[in-house]
Structures are given as C-alpha cells and as structure tokens.
Amino acid sequence: xxxxxxxxxxxxxxxxxxxxxxxxxxxxxxxxxxxxxxxxxxxxxxxxxxxxxxxxxxxxxxxxxxxxxxxxxxxxxxxxxxxxxxxxxxxxxxxxxxxxxxxxxxxxxxxxxxxxxxxxxxxxxxxxxxxxxxxxxxxxxxxxxxxxxxxxxxxxxxxxxxxxxxxxxxxxxxxxxxxxxxxxxxxxxxxxxxxxxxxxxxxxxxxxxxxxxxxxxxxxxxxxxxxxxxxxxxxxxxxxxxxxxxxxxxx
Length: 251
Description:
Helix 1 runs parallel beside helix 2 and helix 4 (107-128) runs parallel beside helix 5 (154-174). The chain is of the alpha/beta class. The chain has helices spanning 13-24, 37-49, 67-82, 107-128, 154-174, 193-196, 202-210, 221-230, and strands spanning 4-7, 28-33, 54-58, 87-92, 132-141, 180-186, 242-245. The longest helix has 22 residues, at 107-128. The model has no long low-confidence stretch (mean pLDDT 93). It contains 8 helices and 7 strands, in the order βαβαβαβαβαβαααβ. Strands 3-2-1-4-5-6-7 form a 7-stranded parallel beta sheet, with helices on both faces.
C-alpha cells in the first residue's frame, strides 16, 4: 500500500510544491486549504495527473476549536478515499505572514500567530498522533529568521523558534514508535506569502539576493523536494534535525 502524507496549507506556494514533490516520490497526499478550495482542487488534480491519489480538506489553523472536526474529516477521508485508517507523514506547513515592528504588535496579532504557528501545530499533531503510523514522520516548517534577525518578524520568528524546540521533543518522545521529526527552515522564497512581499518589491528581492552566495532568492521548488526527501527511506536516519534550505544566506 502506498504511503500517505498530510500537507497543511498544501493548496498553493510552498505547500503545493511539497504536495507535488511527495506525489513524485509515489506518496498519496491529503492537502488542506483555508479559504481557496479551487486552488486546493488544482493541486489535487495535478497529483492525480502524476498517477497519485489525493484529496483536499478544509482546515483553519487560526480556529483552534475546529481541529477536532478536521481530525474526524481526516479519519473519514482515509477510510473512504484511501481504504485505510492511518497515514504516514504529517507536514505542518500552513502559515500566515505579516511584517509588524515589535513596538506595533498587538495582542490580537500575537494570538493569531500563536494559534496558526505554534498552538495549532502542537495540538493538531497531538490529535493526529493516534492515526500516524509507526515508522512514519513529522516535518515542521520553520524559517531562516530563527537564525538571523529580520526587523518586523519578532512574532513570526519567535513562534518558529518554538517549533524548532518542539520538533526536538517530538523526535525524543515519539522515537520509540519509529516516528522521526525534523524541521525544514526556508530562507527568502518568492511566493505569495506575506502579501507576496518579495515578488512585489524588486529592490527588496535584489537586496535579499545579494545576501546569498548563489545570488538569488529561493523558489517553491527549492523547498518541496527537501520535504519530500525527508518522507522517504533515504532519510530514515535523519531525526531531530533543523535543515535550513536558504541558499546559504548570511552564511
């Protein structure tokens, strides 16, 4: 039986490329979306064109009370669409971006980032754990901004820093079940994340490109293949690691 991965936020950007890269590694995929079901269905269709099985489910990471409903939807989907009760890999990718100077961060903004980037990831993983196969894996998505400071990212980066610590605990506590947990930390990527800040600002893009020895910012397909690799037997001895995929920015 083919292995199954769940990619949160898999309808567009990095998540879409992760889903497609997993399909190319012969995994079936459940992708989640928050607001744009049409884009999620495009991802599903693309996976099916590659010969895989896929489906899309609604997930709003900012609504903590919706997690139980989502978990039940996953169970139903596994049974009805994949003829199984368990899945193999969880990729916690869903996120939100906003550039806010520290002095202007409100409690509302803080709580939204907390729910989406930390609390939601923590408890969604916990709730899905009973149906995560032994020998499977978890890939959490962090950020290069946990290593180098970027003004306006104090909330985002601190939540991602918490995720990096949490991943080590996943690796430690779930290892007895053969479940591996790792972090992929992208550097600047040209997607529509954070209102397409890099794509829409050529001067900013040029500045970021100058910080990389490779002379460019990243693309979505620079990240998806690394995530997919971690969900294969080739990565069976990689556990508890932070893998930065940033082109060596600020090396």
